[in-house]
Specification:
Blueprint (H helix, E strand, L loop, with lengths): L1 E3 L3 H11 L9 E3 L2 H11 L3 E5 L7 H10 L7 E6 L5 H9 L3 E4 L4 H12 L7 H11 L15 H11 L4 H8 L3 H15 L4 H10 L9
Parallel strand pairs: 1-2, 1-3, 3-4, 4-5
Length: 215
């Protein structure tokens, strides 16, 4: 686990919570986006918790750099914010963040979210996703590389992911096994060059594959 925030008090508070957990280890702390990238390369943590707005290099740039580095493909970035749903959060998701947390989150919810992110799952509730997309998605749609290469089943799977369904829910909706549902999602992510499910959701809406009014 990597913690990056320009406020030492915030970092120490989160670290104190995480140090109580036997299965979570904080390997490093940083003050800005530049340190986030350097420390991520040095430690390759499962989760990097990065403040979205920092002097000396913000969380969006750090997220994008981490997402672009093949050596850091296993690092799941979670954005920290004071402000909740704003354009910075949306751009961080576009850059490759797995989700975001508001700093006034309850301690037990924070620890749970870290574990969810470590498993590679997106921290995006459907209602929050719809609000972000409705406010900040680009109109008209932006064509996504690889969209034409999706099969009909992969397109269906992406649309369902964009509506917040899990793999088991996809399987039930599409009348297939959960393993097949996961395969459709993973293949779509590869074709669309999506780092994770959160980025897949953004691509689905920005490309016009799914429209906000449909959600």
């Amino acid at each position: 686990m990597l913690l990056v925030d320009d406020q030492p008090l915030i970092r120490s508070g989160f670290r104190a919570l995480l140090d109580l957990e036997d299965d979570i280890e904080v390997v490093a702390e940083g003050n800005d986006g530049h340190e986030a990238l350097e420390l991520a390369r040095q430690h390759v943590p499962d989760v990097a918790l990065i403040d979205v707005r920092m002097p000396g290099g913000d969380g969006i740039e750090a997220t994008e750099r981490i997402a672009e580095d093949p050596a850091l493909a296993g690092v799941h970035v979670v954005i920290l914010t004071n402000y909740g749903l704003d354009e910075y959060v949306f751009h961080a998701l576009r850059a490759g963040a797995a989700g975001f947390l508001v700093k006034d989150i309850q301690p037990e919810d924070f620890v749970h979210a870290v574990r969810v992110a470590a498993r590679g799952e997106a921290l995006l509730a459907p209602a929050i996703t719809r609000k972000l997309i409705d406010r900040y998605v680009t109109r008209p749609p932006r064509p996504a590389a690889g969209l034409d290469g999706l099969t009909n089943r992969e397109r269906e799977a992406v649309a369902l992911v964009a509506h917040g369904l899990s793999n088991s829910e996809l399987a039930a909706h599409m009348a297939i096994t959960p393993i097949t549902a996961k395969t459709h999602v993973n293949r779509a992510m590869t074709k669309l060059r999506a780092r994770d499910r959160a980025q897949l959701v953004v691509i689905a809406y920005e490309s016009g594959l799914v429209k906000p009014a449909q959600s």
